[in-house]
Amino acid sequence: MTKNVFIIGAKGIPANYGGFESFVEQLTARKESQDIHYYVACRRDLSENKADTFEYNDATCFNVDVPDVGPAKAILYDVNAFKWTMKYIKKNNIQNAIVYVLACRMGPFIKHFKKQLRQYNGTLFVNPDGHEWLRAKWSAPVRKYWKYSERLMVKHADLLICDSQNIEKYIQNDYKQYSPKTTYIAYGSDIIKSTLMDNDQVVTDWYTKHAVKLNNYYLIVGRFVPENNYETMIREFMNSDTDKDLVIISNVEKNKFYTDLQAKTNFESDPRINFVGTVYNAQLLKYIRENAFAYLHGHEVGGTNPSLLEALGSTKLNLLLDVGFNREVGKDGAIYWTKKYGNLAKIINDMDNLSEENINDLDKASSRRIIDQFDWAIIIKKYENVLVTK
Questions:
Q1: Burial of 142 (0-12, 13-18, 19+ CB in 10 A)
Q2: CA-to-CA distance for 126 and 7, rounded, in angstroms?
């Protein structure tokens, strides 16, 4: 009998960018089990003229209208997606469905939907994501909401699928009063090389535009937010002696964070530092990773970070902030730095003098981490085992 799985919380597929979006893309594209049918919520802005439903990767995708109500837009999107889901389940009398909610945004509403879902013997799965309530971009009242919402999502979930062992421990410890049922399934990645070649037009155009040379730059890829430690990475890079560039791929807005960062580091005075904007071409981004000298990762809030996995699978040298989330993923395939003044600058200097043999050893170890623990084939199999047996 087919298991119907409704996925709520990603912006939708086809995926352009984003961890949850890429995850849903892979989950549906690489489906092995014939006993699962996916339904995927996709966010449709009111100005967009898109069909209500469409098929993609053999999944039924349903567009959910959501007005632009500021920070509450993501919450409203989840609520409206769950409304659509319950309406569809009722109309078609679907029994034993699984509703899988990605992130903990809609906690105050989840009891209501869980009650409806139970009437059809449905099951609620939740991915708690990372510590959203710790993100510096949120005001104190918003952080309080995220923590409250997370508590309610944990309380009412039948199963929490954690993509980080550290997150699973946190859920078990902080919410032990609910005896939460959890399982660990990581985010996925691969070590497949980019399809692009050195002389492809899209490659030569990008490297020429940004005046960057192959294997002569350190790379940062990630959201431009304080908890990703841009200030430390930029300051330490500026204090290093490297003659390589620092290429920063991010959706940089010239907001208060940007101006404060500029004032604290004076990064515009250093010609090595190169903000290049976003790269939405997945093959080009992979090529840029492969041809970086080293990758810098400063994330300290969240679970298994997709950008880190992609770097471990593509970039030879990976320099990671020394926190539990990153150690759990990188293990012996990376070098670790702290926020202590001078620590990362010294490591950068040391990396510039690292032997080819040592670089290759680290490259093999990081690739082995992906092959053994995070390959998409492994992750999809784990998901399908959980989904079919529930």
A1: middle
A2: 10
